[in-house]
Write a structure and sequence with these properties.
Layout lengths: L1 H18 L11 E4 L4 H6 L6 H8 L4 E2 L6 E9 L6 E9 L5 E6 L35
Antiparallel strand pairs: 1-3, 2-3, 3-4, 4-5
GO biological process, one term: protein insertion into membrane
Keywords: Cell outer membrane, Lipoprotein, Membrane, Palmitate, Signal
InterPro entries: BamE, BamE-like, BamE_dom
């Protein structure tokens, strides 16, 4: 009788410890929070731009300085699976006329492998002769 209890406890302990392995088996998604900042769009913000132009590029800031309204903070926090979260802070300073005077990025952003839709350059077709073709003339 005592053997059955000991054997049951050993099996239960083995089952519990097998669930907590060294490997990370459970999939965790990447969690971006705040303003999604890309290196290409942040590089477009230059001194001399107006506040609406910056807001068009980067969106609404996470924090606007409550005392002067002349400093905008864009905060991007990303955690990839089991890694430590990485925070990027982009600060845009304005003069009283609403023109960018200085920008500051605390650490470089990772380069994106593909270009997002808002950064895509739309080009016109090279030749207008394709318009004259009909749908049944696709081989020409």
């Amino acid at each position: 009788m005592q053997f059955k209890t000991f054997f049951g406890a050993a099996v239960l302990a083995l089952a519990l410890t097998s669930c907590s392995s060294v490997q990370k088996v459970v999939y965790r998604i990447d969690v971006p929070q705040g303003n999604y900042l890309e290196a290409a769009t942040v590089a477009q913000v230059k001194p001399g731009m107006t506040a609406p132009q910056v807001q068009y590029l980067l969106g609404t800031p996470v924090l606007i300085d409550p005392y002067s309204n002349l400093t905008w903070y864009y905060v991007f926090l990303e955690q990839q699976s089991y890694q430590k979260p990485v925070q990027h802070t982009f600060v845009v300073n304005y003069n009283p006329q609403g023109v960018v005077t200085a920008v500051d990025l605390d650490k470089p952003l990772p380069e994106v492998a593909h270009q997002d839709a808002n950064n895509t350059i739309i080009s016109t077709p090279e030749s207008a002769s394709n318009k004259s073709k009909r749908w049944w003339q696709f081989w020409k």
